[in-house]
Amino acid sequence: MEFLFAPMEGxxxxxxxxxxxxxFPGVSRYYAPFFSPSGDHHFPLRGxxxxxxxxxxxxxxxxxxxxxxxxxxxxxxASLMDRGYGxxxxxxxxxxxxxxAKRKGAGFLLLPAExxxxxxxxxxxxxxxxxxxxxxxxxxxxxEEEWERLLSIYRQYPLARLIVHPxxxxxxxxxxxxxxxxxxxxxxxxxxxxxxxxxxxxxDLEALRARxxxxxxxxxxxxxxxxPGLAGRLETGEACRRETLRDFHEAVSEEYRxxxxxxxxxxxRMKELWSYLILHFEGGEKHFKRLTKAKSWAEFHLxxxxxxxxxxxxxxxxMPGLSGYxxxxxxx
Length: 332
Ligand SMILES: Cc1cc2nc3c(=O)[nH]c(=O)nc-3n(C[C@H](O)[C@H](O)[C@H](O)COP(=O)(O)O)c2cc1C
Description:
This protein is an alpha/beta fold.
């Protein structure tokens, strides 16, 4: 089984990725959080930096673009090819209201004819010859009946892979997953289909394999953010050691310290990380509050040290608020 690290805006930027890749084996490709190319065809330094090969040593990276304009996708993807990238992903899943209002991300799914025309231009573009293009998609905006049309559009194009987060935009991240929609994507697919969503433990993976034995790739997001060693554990059965986790945390914070301006920015960035890491510790609520209230790096560091010193690690991270189908099939 191949494991891909899902893009997570605000969490899995280049600093996180390169440290993660140094500490934890088992991830075959990291997908970068989305970059939105602007109409003036200029890479802002901030967006570009995250994608520079020299900022991503040891990381097999796939950049992701968020746009509904073929000319902007072609320009940005061609620039990424020039920088050595062989694959680029299109975001068709972002549920944020500001994004979908512009009919980008999951909002683009509301315009199937325009999406078809977009893909036709992109795949016909001589500037992108040789580039592998993947789509990361939800199964619709508001109703599962949208999926059939979307799937028939996708199947007209030579996608490198179709990554399916089998939720609707209206499900956001915690509504029910729709395994039947995934089954439809898999059936007779001309390209590899990747499962994404709610895999947080070996039991989740087993349940998925039992239902979809032909799936060869799984994309992991929140599960990996909560348990950075999850891909390795899924592969070998061995959990990562607490010391490794602590060293990883230390290394990420050191690297952020070197590039972020000021302690507030550093604490803010590390809080994002801890909002996932804490889910892997037993009874972390009080400690997490202490982390979020820290006013200086010294306070923050003490609070994080207390987590490592005082809290037992859970066998599997606990995701709050999920009613995933994997949980249901595990219950029988
Ligand atoms: C904080 C956060 C940021 C995310 N950012 C992106 C993004 O930039 N691009 C994208 O395609 N998906 C993004 N996602 C969605 C994840 O990549 C993934 O599809 C989703 O979390 C479901 O997978 P999981 O259950 O393994 O977490 C984000 C999700 C979260 C929670």
